Task: structure prediction
Amino acid sequence: MKLNACLLIVTVASAMLLISMRSQTRGYFGLKENQKRLMQNLEEEYRLMLLEKAQLTNIDRIKKKASSVGMQLPDFTARRALKAK
Amino acid sequence: MLVQENYRKIRTNQERKRRRISENTRINLVLAGLFALFVVVFARVVYFQWSEVSKWEAHGNSIYYRKVPIIAERGRILDRNGVILAMNEPRRNIILDPYQLPKFDLEKRKVQNKPALLARVKQNEQDFYRHLDQLADWLGETREELYAQFNYRNYEGKPKGDRYLKRKIDKLVADKVKALHLPGIKIAPVAARRYPDGSLFAQIVGVTKVDVDLQNNERIIGLEGLEYQFDRYLRGKNGLRVMVQDNTGRYIDNVSSDKNTAVQDGRDLVLSIDKNIQSATMDVLRETVQAHQATSGSAVVLDAKTGEVLAMVNYPDFNPSQFTKYDVKLRRNYAVNDLMEPGSLFKPLVIAKALDEGKVKPDTWINTNPYVVQNHRIEDVGSHAQLTVTGIITKSSNVGSSKVMALLDSKDVFDYLVSIGVGRKPNSGFPGEAAGILHNWKQWKPLDKATLSYGYGVQMSLLQLARAYTIFTNNGQLLTPTFLKLGQNAPRTIPVIKPTTAKWMRSIMTTVTEPGGTGTRAAIPGFKVAGKSGTARKLIHGRYSSNDHVAMFAGYAPAENPRLIVVVGIDSPRVDGYYGGVVAAPAFGQIMASALSILGEIPSEPVTAAKKQP
Result:
């Protein structure tokens, strides 16, 4: 009788523990998913920044900016070499 | 008591026995019934568990489990220095589910006798249309259009399913739309392919399109150029996660399933192209095509020691982000996909074979008076009684090269030309590369052999020409051109001619850009430049045109130890000349000078005064 009671208590306790662990797991899963979403957002931000950087370093854009302040590319075919090999 | 006694009296022993039997029978019957019921239930359970287990399991799973696809990110395309040439921009699709749209008219009718509820429905309706007005502003659509799209009556009788409200909108706009909590609106992340340098790499990198798979997932697939060729490499592999969904649609747990597959993002593709050289080449080519009012132009810059394509430019070009607006012809990579007769650019290849076989030496004199083959007069633009083998290249003599060709065995020449990639695909890895045309030596008549020596009757792409010239820059070893950065990997080489022959050729071809040569405009102060000019009449409808020419120049520098090979082709120049030495040579010089400067090549000769090309 005592053994049966013990077994019953153990069973109930296990069931409760199982339920609470499951709930905890889902809580952690939710946290993990949130972190994952955050990571994805950061990755997207990073990608957008990379794209912006690539657009800012567009050669045509740089040339336009340079020409607007009176700068131009050197003429490579007419350069002077200061020192030969 | 009396009653009991009476009762006892009424029931005899026999009657009692009968009653007991009758009671037992009833109990047994009930038990049998219960047992039968239990057997039926048990049989049903067994049936469910064994016979239709997969069906019911699937049904149960479909209620709680969701297969969530994880879309693989397409890889980036980078130049050799890590500059981004193509990448994905995170965007959002706004999707409308018409069956989630509010039905305010029906709701109002339902609660018309309940003023409080009616007021609430009216308030909701007002809020809804206020949000729609905001949405219309953000999406750049008219309010009327949007009202129509959000009217559930417009979808009655139409097939169920989501509709795109707006595709590939900015992420920030999508976040604002999401915050409105409009019914029937779903927001899905998507990627849009972006090319930060616009048209600069359009014909090499190619274009992509959005494809929708069976699960309604959008994915980007390569359509042309390297995007197409390396599509599998760039695309990656979508993954799948089986997850538990609660009644609000949130995923609350993972499910261990054999259907779970990990996502494999596409890999980045590192090209051999150098953005700076590409840009400089494009500037020169654009200027040349416009200055000579030519139909088009192409230029190839090859690493002389590895065969890596450092720049490949075609003009006119197109914007890859709006490629459908351009003619298909513009999207062709002329330098790889289109053929032209190489003209005089072919002469060094023939002379190299004769030198290699010991038939001639650089100083061997050849009679270059005009002569007749099969009633066809072979002559030069300028007349020379005789020229050395070096002079044949310097002056670009058709007569001289045809006479040197005559010294060679046709089969040997054919085998040699095939070995340097004439009439064969260059195997650069670019889709649709042209193999060119080289007729079998058995079909060669004396005139065919003579004209072949100066590049007629054979067709090649600019890339094939650049590849063939690698035998001069790489000590007689042919290189395979590639669009991918080799890094530490050794290039693939095939020995074709002797290193001494290659050295002779470098020396001979240097005379072309020196005073007296046909390509002096290709000279670069401080460097020895070896090259060859070429002008070919265009073959139009099977006849050589007298008005349309292709002006070409191919060469390498520094001639002593070449670093780069550059080939320039200008199609149909209309003004200011049409000769290769006049139209293509200056472009070659500028491209070579810029590229050498970008690579930090130090001039081998001191330059005392700046020389400005006319």
Summary: The longest helix of chain A spans residues 2-56. The CA atoms of residues 67 and 73 of chain A lie 9 Å apart. Chain A touches chain B at residues 25-26, 29-30, 33, 44, 47-48, 50-51, 54-55, 57-60, 73-81, 83-85 (CB under 8 Å). Chain A has a mean pLDDT of 85.
